[in-house]
Design brief:
By secondary structure, this protein is mostly helical. The chain has 36 helices and two strands. The protein is extended. It starts with 18 loop residues before the first helix and ends with a helix. Keywords: mRNA processing, mRNA splicing, Nucleus, Phosphoprotein, Repeat, Spliceosome.
């Protein structure tokens, strides 16, 4: 017979352990930080297989704990993918899809894995399953069509778009399909898609939007199918009728007819709309109609009354004061909106002929914008590139470069030549500007241009010229060094920094030193960083430099960081004992105390507390500018322990203050004996 254990004491234990307590302790122990596992190097296949087995077991355990956490599945699959185990990664993704097939991220990661590994057919299969399972997720459709288009499978991409359109998606999807067809010059297909979309809006939407009709008409206009565009506008007007009239539709229709020079049609459209749309809803319509009439109305009736009147006013103003450039700007704005190109050029020529009489830059600041507007008009409105070049060149010849120049003019000219694909002329213009009148803005603009063109050798030469011109410019030194760092030439970057800190004059040396120190820290050259701090401390004993040095030692070293940091604070305290600015030394001691509170022992904390000064209030006499007395001023002073030891009179002064206070209290008690009696009775 088996032996049966008999429990002698069946009384309940004094301390009861509940299930809640067990769970809470387990949760708390999860938060305990475990030391990271040691790094190990895998040297043979058996160790690799053992490592894979352990990792897979860890991932499988995480999945088994909570199958619904999709991030665990994705991490598992990505790990398998990193080992080139594509079949295993597929298996994991398929298992994850069995758990949650509605997760969008899961499908995207799965398809991206296949595309990344050039498994095109597998990716197609996944996208097909995704859009079949979740057809309302637009992201799947966009990525599927994009993949097919990138593969050059235009027919396949079109087929995917057609499947998408069967689901009647939102507006952006239709426009994506249209833009796709336009990229391949399939105008007829794009037109048929617009027709289907318009039909979809008519049948499905309760209140169709006017902008879709306008986009369709502008599409036809853009491709020079003007008759088709007119039919679209007419269909839109007929569809909306008089009950749902929208001023934007009529404004767009009128502007289309205006571009076609059908001015009578424009006038009829505006009048038809203004007669039927309420005035409070037709402000924009009336404004555009007024502008149209100003442009194309009867010259005797409208232009003579409105435009000529305003032109006469401007003519009077510029005759009274030819150097009133604001009046010229208003006059030119009026002429540009109304007159032909020759008239506009004539007014511009008259305006720029009024050169400021004094060669001072403040008198030229408004005048130079006449030239800029003239050049922009020739380039953008008149489309005359030769005249634009002549305008820029004439302006640059007019400027007195020996006295002052306008960097924006040189840069605008160079940018114009770049837009004309004439790079040599742009470089020649910027080189001439640097030769005639070097300025920081010109150097920066030229360097920016060459950086965009990836001409790094030219950038180096320009930086060298720039630094010869302005060696005190710390920003230029820093940008030059950053360029060399980006290009991977660390030694050149370090040499540039060394040259920079050796300059006798610098505008912002603190920024330069900080950049150099950060550069060395980024390169993990800690010994060189320490040497830099020592060099900087030979030049300045500023408290922020000492604090920064100490914080660097705290963050740089591993084993010796605390002694090094404490040593820096010791050196700083000794160096700043002779400093006149006591607030800086207090700042240093405060930083030291915060360091000791975090990393120090009781002994070091007590030591730093003994070094802290005593804050006392003092008074000093003020004097006015004329030498007379201006009263007294209270201020706070700091007395350090070594100052107390060196000045024995401070203790005597403290005893004198205490004696004076006691005397005042005794005199007050003698002046009011009744108060003493009342206090004794109380």
């Amino acid at each position: 017979l088996p032996l049966t254990l008999q429990v002698k004491n069946k009384a309940p234990a004094e301390v009861q352990i509940t299930a809640e307590q067990l769970l809470r302790e387990a949760k708390e122990r999860e938060l305990e930080l475990l030391p990271p596992p040691p790094q190990q190097k895998i040297t043979d296949v058996e160790e690799l297989n053992d490592y894979k087995l352990r990792k897979r077991k860890t991932f499988e355990d995480n999945i088994r704990k909570n199958r619904t956490v999709i991030s665990n599945w994705i991490k598992y699959a990505q790990w398998e993918e990193s080992l080139k185990e594509i079949q295993r990664a597929r298996s994991i993704y398929e298992r994850a899809l069995d758990v949650d097939y509605r997760n969008i991220t899961l499908w995207l990661k799965y398809a991206e894995m296949e595309m990344k590994n050039r498994q095109v057919n597998h990716a197609r299969n996944i996208w097909d399953r995704a859009i079949t399972t979740l057809p309302r997720v637009n992201q799947f459709w966009y990525k599927y069509t994009y993949m097919e288009e990138m593969l050059g499978n235009v027919a396949g991409s079109r087929q995917v778009f057609e499947r998408w359109m069967e689901w009647q998606p939102e507006e952006q999807a239709w426009h994506s399909y249209i833009n796709f067809e336009l990229r391949y010059k399939e105008v007829d297909r794009a037109r048929s898609i617009y027709e289907r979309y318009i039909l979809f809006t008519l049948l499905v939407l309760v209140h169709p939007d006017v902008k879709n009709w306008i986009k369709y008409a502008r599409f036809e206009e853009k491709h020079s199918y003007f008759a088709h565009a007119r039919k679209v506008y007419e269909r839109a007007v007929e569809f909306f009728g008089e009950e749902h009239m929208d001023e934007h539709l009529y404004v767009a229709f009128a502007k289309f007819e205006e571009n076609q020079k059908e001015f009578e049609r424009v006038r009829v459209i505006y009048k038809y709309a203004l007669d039927r749309i309420p005035k409070q809803d037709a402000q924009n319509l009336f404004k555009n109609y007024t502008i149209f009439e100003k442009k194309f109305g009867d010259r005797r009736g409208i232009e003579d009354i409105i435009v000529s009147k305003r032109r006469f006013q401007y003519e009077e103003e510029v005759k009274a004061n030819p150097h009133n450039y604001d009046a010229w700007f208003d006059y030119l704005r009026l002429v540009e909106s109304d007159a032909d190109a020759e008239t506009v050029r004539e007014v511009y020529e008259r305006a720029i002929a009024n050169v400021p009489p004094i060669q001072e830059k403040r008198h030229w600041k408004r005048y130079i914008y006449l030239w800029i507007n003239y050049a922009l008009y020739e380039e953008l409105e008149a489309k005359a590139s030769k005249r634009t070049r002549q305008v820029y060149q004439a302006c640059l010849e007019l400027l007195p470069h020996k006295k002052f120049t306008f960097a924006k003019m040189w840069l605008l000219y160079a940018q114009f030549e770049i837009r004309q694909k004439n790079l040599p002329l742009a470089r020649r213009a910027l080189g001439t500007s640097i030769g005639k009148c070097p300025k920081n803005k010109l150097f920066k603009g030229y360097i920016e241009l060459e950086l965009q063109l990836r001409e790094f050798d030219r950038c180096r030469k320009l930086y060298e010229k720039f630094l010869e011109f302005a060696p005190e410019n710390c920003t230029s030194w820093i940008k030059f060094a950053e360029l060399e760092t980006i290009l991977g030439d660390i030694d050149r970057a370090r040499a540039i920094y060394e040259l920079a800190i050796g300059q006798p004059r610098l505008d912002m040396p603190e920024i330069l030193w900080k950049s150099y120190i950060d550069f060395e820290i980024e390169q993990e050259e800690y010994e060189k960083t320490r040497n830099l701090y020592r060099q900087l401390l030979q030049r300045t004993q500023h408290v922020k430099v000492w604090i920064s040095f100490a914080q660097f030692e705290l963050s740089a070293g591993r084993e010796e960081r605390l002694p090094r940091c404490r040593q820096i604070y010791e050196e700083a305290n000794k160096a700043m004992r002779s400093c006149e600015e006591k607030e800086e030394r207090v700042m240093l001691l405060e930083s030291w105390r915060s360091f000791e509170e975090e990393f120090g022992t009781d002994a070091t904390k007590e030591r730093i507390d003994k070094l802290m000064p005593e804050k006392i209030k003092k008074r000093r006499k003020l004097q006015a500018e004329d030498g007379s007395d201006a009263g007294w001023e209270e201020y706070y002073d700091y007395i350090f322990p070594e100052d107390t030891a060196n000045q024995p009179n401070l203790k005597l002064l403290a005893m004198a203050k205490l004696w004076k206070k006691q005397q005042q209290e005794s005199e007050a008690a003698a002046m009011d004996p009744d108060k003493d009696i009342d206090e004794s009775q109380t």
